């Protein structure tokens, strides 16, 4: 066991990972990518493919309708297929509608899309804690566009920029999400690239994130603790993947 981010204990995924090797997974490691190969490890009970340039992987394994085990793993440099488990959240939350195959999802059903997706951006009501992906600090007027008639569907946009009907009430199927309405949950969030432009399918759903856990199930996102969100932001590189399965 070694101590990492802000004194958080980091648990090895596997047996007997030497401290010298584990040190090579530091958030700012200059040895990023050394010795890696494309491989198919079993992580969090799920066999998954990890690309040669992929630094981290998040595996969300649904255990009941709205709960999942969510594991976050970082590759060890100098090893072609060795990973350090940074956290295993055994009570992470998914959508109130459970999970569904991503290609079958419908907007407004509260389901989390199963599949494998990249993560390339993050946002939050709080300042960037030191992430490696592009991070947007949320400001007044920021929305996640869920207006199916908008060319900006499934993107972050400020109402001052126009192009979507931000004034529609939440009861309307084309209403968008005002990000400042969710303090706590959206203090830190990563965008899961599900149904994103330029190939977004209208009415399939928008605004699927990995974010801070609230009091209940989500509307389709994956939610973990604030501490775990900060750990993920400290290590995940743009293009790394999240696997959602059941």
UniProtKB/TrEMBL annotation:
One Gene Ontology term of the molecular function aspect: transferase activity
GO biological process, one term: cell wall organization
Signal sequence, renumbered to the chain: 1-22
Family matches, as InterPro entries: LD_TPept_cat_dom, Transpep_catalytic_dom
Keyword Cell wall biogenesis/degradation: yes
Coiled coil: none
Pathway annotation from the record: Cell wall biogenesis; peptidoglycan biosynthesis
Keywords, ordered alphabetically: Cell shape, Cell wall biogenesis/degradation, Peptidoglycan synthesis, Signal, Transferase
Pfam families (UniProt xref): YkuD
Domain of life from the UniProt record: Bacteria
The keyword Electron transport is assigned to this record: no
Annotated ranges, domain L,D-TPase catalytic: 89-244
Name this protein carries in UniProt: L,D-transpeptidase family protein
Species assigned in the record: Microlunatus elymi
């Amino acid at each position: 066991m070694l101590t990492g981010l802000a004194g958080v204990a980091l648990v090895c995924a596997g047996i007997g990972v030497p401290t010298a090797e584990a040190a090579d997974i530091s958030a700012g490691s200059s040895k990023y990518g050394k010795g890696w190969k494309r491989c198919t490890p079993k992580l969090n009970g799920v066999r998954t493919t990890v690309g040669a340039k992929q630094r981290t992987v998040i595996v969300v394994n649904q255990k009941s309708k709205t709960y999942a085990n969510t594991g976050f793993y970082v590759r060890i440099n100098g090893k072609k297929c060795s990973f350090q488990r940074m956290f295993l959240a055994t009570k992470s939350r998914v959508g109130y509608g459970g999970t569904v195959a991503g290609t079958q999802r419908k907007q407004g059903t509260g389901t989390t899309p199963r599949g494998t997706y990249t993560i390339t951006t993050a946002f939050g009501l709080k300042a960037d804690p030191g992430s490696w992906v592009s991070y947007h600090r949320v400001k007044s007027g920021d929305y996640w566009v869920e207006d199916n008639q908008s060319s900006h569907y499934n993107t972050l946009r400020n109402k001052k920029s126009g192009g979507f009907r931000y004034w529609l009430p939440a009861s309307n199927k084309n209403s968008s999400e005002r990000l400042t309405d969710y303090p706590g949950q959206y203090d830190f969030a990563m965008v899961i690239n599900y149904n994103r432009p330029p190939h977004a399918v209208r009415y399939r759903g928008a605004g699927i994130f990995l974010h801070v856990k609230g009091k209940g199930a989500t509307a389709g996102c994956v939610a973990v603790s604030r501490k775990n969100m900060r750990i993920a932001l400290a290590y995940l590189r743009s293009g790394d993947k999240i696997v959602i399965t059941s």
